[in-house]
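#structure-requests
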Amino acid sequence: MLKEFFKKALNKTPAVIIIVGVFVFSAASAQSLKNLTSNEKAKEVAPKIPTPQNPAMGGELKKHSLGLGVGQTFLNGDFDENGEDKITFDLLYNYSASYSFDFMMGAHRSSHEFRGKKTVLQGLTMGIKAKLYQIDSFSPYAMGGFGFYAPKLTRIINNVPTESESKTVFGYHIGAGGELKLNRNVAVGLLGQYHNPFDQKQENQAEVEGSYFKLLITAMYIF
């Protein structure tokens, strides 16, 4: 009789284990669901959800920024043959369109003289800044776009300083950098940017061709 009882109990053990397991799992799931849907949990999770009013995850949206970039400009091609690398300034504008992408504009003008020759660089650029990820208030990014350029050279031709024709051409730029937000209104960073204006054809002299690289310290005011 006792043998039969243990035999029946062993045969029913898997079913009992399954039933008990389902009951425990259901109770745990119900408790977890209750925790997730409780007011206390909602208050805990809410600050981590990105919204235009809550910049916890990647910055605020629809924000404008104006700033200045200061650093060295390195010349290449015809620009390097007729000018010298020097410290220059850029005016910068940024608009936070989404948590991952910003619209960025830049304007610059600089004059580089060397032994009676001169390179004048002028540019108005537009591009997209892609924020790669965010660590606290620091965000590295990559950027690229197009722009309008009006480089001008003063070259020595037949021992006479001769200016090139002034023409506006299209061109492209690419770059990368990092930005650190000091508070809601101020951000500083580094930016390396390569500019390549398309070649300018000239009537009475060789075409103007060249490129340049900027390494800048940036400071932006956000509003």
